[in-house]
Amino acid sequence: MTATSAARVSLPTIAREWGRIGVTGFGGPPAHIALLRALCVEKTAWIEAKEFEDGIAATNLLPGPASTQLAIFCAWRLRGPAGALVGGVCFIAPGLVMILILSALFLLAHPPLWILGAAAGAGAAVPAIALHAGIGLIPASWKRTGLRRAPRIRWIVYLGIGVIAGATIGSYLVLVLLALGLIEVIVQRDWREHPPRGATSLLLPVLLSAAGASGLAALAWVALKVGALSYGGGFVIIPLMQHDAVVAEHWMTNAQFLNAVALGQVTPGPVVLTVAAVGYAAAGIGGALLATVVAFAPSFAFILLGARHFDRLRDNAAIQAFLSGAGTAVIGAIIGSSVPLGLALSQWWQLGVLAAALIWLVALRRGVVTAIVVAAAVGVIAVLLGAPAPH
């Protein structure tokens, strides 16, 4: 695509089209990618198909929400930094507005009974959604190991460690992901041809992740981990947030955290917007906006500073090796996160909703949004008929 063709795409056009995708993008990353491809490649031919696929591959190598980064990248490709900022904000804003409205309802100190029922029903489906998300990533990841025995054995080990870490260690999960990524770099590296360089840049997140904070600084730190250190994006943010939000900082109860995850799934836009619900519980509207800005700032930075170097990113053997280790562990962690999410359920009838959601999502492979909406409706009916609601 030439600079002349890009110049014809005005900022108002980018705002309108990226905002439309932000409103209609129910279904998570697959839906976002399909909508962006339909607009930029098929309908308008603003971006060539190969360049779009390269953008998908490159953004999947970055930590944070890949589909959000792809939306920012496409807007950057059409109108440079200004386009990236306008497109990214318009893509994120509709989901943020919706999740703030729903958070105000679902996180009331004394919500109506039907709200409690809807929240309890939707929250009961969340462990099944996590399991469904992780299982769905396995085939493609396994295929990338090739046919050799050693990489496949390491893949199984990394997956198992990720499952255990996601089920048990909460906010320290990022240390495991980074460690396994570094181990795979060491295993794959030819030290005779490629002497070690830049190791400190890989270790820096490990050192940073040991930092502590309190109040709004703690909220900003949780959001930063979600946006900058969550390799794989999506559901890997759940174990990163649950310990901090529920156990360490007491911003929300387990039931409220399940509600936040459900809200992040049922609204359009990136799943990472779950962090806005956590921020709302911690410090109201201001906390939600702070958490959102901090969580998405790395995605904008990655595109604005690095998009022109995406071809080198894809060809870098060390980065590919790191993602082989960390990415496999991410899948395990997403699967493992279903354990603490399931243990957070407190009412007997929620187990029935969870079982039905498992059948719907894992056995029948049906839609996530439908599962949440139906589970919420079942929850409303259950509590109105006298079933106890979580507090």
Automatic annotation (TrEMBL):
Pfam families: Chromate_transp (PF02417)
Membrane topology annotation: Multi-pass membrane protein
Assigned keywords, A-Z: Cell membrane, Membrane, Transmembrane, Transmembrane helix
Keyword Transmembrane helix: yes
InterPro entries xref list: Chr_Tranpt_l_chain, CHR_Transporter, Chromate_transpt
Protein name, entry field: Chromate efflux transporter
Predominant subcellular localization, coarse grouping: membrane
Protein family according to the UniProt entry: Belongs to the chromate ion transporter (CHR) (TC 2.A.51) family.
Lipid biosynthesis among keywords: no
Location relative to the cell: Cell membrane
Transmembrane segments: 85-107, 113-135, 156-183, 203-224, 272-305, 317-335, 347-364, 371-389
Species, as recorded: Lysinimonas soli
Superkingdom of this protein's organism: Bacteria
